[in-house]
Amino acid sequence: MRRHARLAGILLVATACTRASGAPSPAAHTTATPAPAPLAATHLLVLNKGEASASLLDLTDGRTVATMPVGEGPHEVAARADGRIAVACNYGTGPAPGRSLTVLDLVARRPVRTIDLGEYRRPHGIQWLPDGRRVVVTVEANQAVLVVDVEAGRVERAIRTDQSGTHMLVTSPDGARVYTANLGSGSVSLLDLAQGTATRTMVTGRFPEAMDLSPDGRRLWAADRVLEKVTILDAATLDTLASLPTGKFPNRLKFTSDGRTALVSNAQSSTIGFYDVAAQRADGTLAIPLDTTLARGQMLGAQMRGSAVPLGIVIDPTGTRAFVALAAMDRIAEVALRTRTVTRLLAAGREPDGMALVRLP
Hints:
By secondary structure, the chain is mainly beta. The chain has a domain at 246-361: YVTN repeat-like/Quinoprotein amine dehydrogenase (Methylamine Dehydrogenase, Chain H, 7 Propeller), CATH 2.130.10.10. The protein has one helix and 28 strands. It has a four-stranded antiparallel sheet, with no helix packed on it. Strand 10 and strand 11 form a beta hairpin. The longest helix has 7 residues, at 2-8. The two termini are 35 Å apart.
C-alpha cells in the first residue's frame, strides 16, 4: 500500500493553460475516402545508457518482454516504419568513443548485426530514410552525418557539417534534407542529401540540442539547453521567426503527429513543457517529481540533483499519449496528452534515454 501511495504521489497534472472547380455531374460525384486512423503502438523500445542494453516493453501491461545487448553508452535509436528492425547508436562512455551501430530484430527480439563505423566516432542522432534500407547518423567527433546502408552493413558516405558537436538530427518528410543541432558551435545546419553537402548553417545560441521538424516540414524548432529557449526557424532558409522560453536544461523536443503541440523535456527542472504551435506560445507545464525511493545516479551528475531527469520523448501515432524517459528513476512515464497527467510508470533498465514506438504482432 505504501508503494502505491508513493507512485500515486508523482502523478501530477499540469494546468495548461474544395471542392474542385467545375461541379461534377451527380453520376460522376464521389465521396473521398477518409484516411485510416493511425494505429496505436503496441511496444516501446528503450535504450538503457547505464547498462548497454535495449528493453522491449509490451504496452498492454507494461512488462519487459525482452532485454537485448547493444554497445556501450547507447543514446538514440530508430525503428524502421514496419516496426521489425531498429538501429541503436553506440555513443560510448567517458573518454572511450563508440564507433558502431547495433541492428536489432524486434520480432526475434535479438541483435542481429553490429555495423562498424571505422574512423567515425560518437554516433548519436539517427533516423531512417524513406527507402527503409538506409539510416542517417550524426558522428559527433567527426563533425559529420553518415548515410549507412543497414542491409549491407556499411557506411555509404559521409557529409561534413564542419560544426563542433554535431549531435542530433531530423530529416524532412521526403528524406531529401537533414537538419542537425551542433552543440559546440551553437548552430543548426541544413544538409542536402542529393548534393551531399551542408547548404546552410545558422547560429541559434550557445548549446542547441533538442530539435524537431513540424510534420508539414515548414518549421524547425531547436531548444538551447544553456540559454533555456526554443528558437523557431523557417525550415527552408533557417531564418529565425520567434523564440520561446523553456525550463532548465531542455533536452528533447517532439511534435505531436497533427503538428498542433510540441513537447520539451527539461532535464534539470524535472518538467515537460507544452507549446501551442500555431500560436507560438508556451501552453503549460507538467512537473514530474523525483521519487527518492527510486532515485539513482546518472551521467549528467550533480547538476540534476532533485530531478527525475526527463530525457527522451516519443509520441504515439494516435496523438493520445507520450512516453518520457526518467533517467534518475529507471522508469518511463506514460503521459496522457489530453489531460496532461502521468498515467503510469513503466520499469526500464539502468538510465533510460532514447526510445522508439513500434507496432508488433
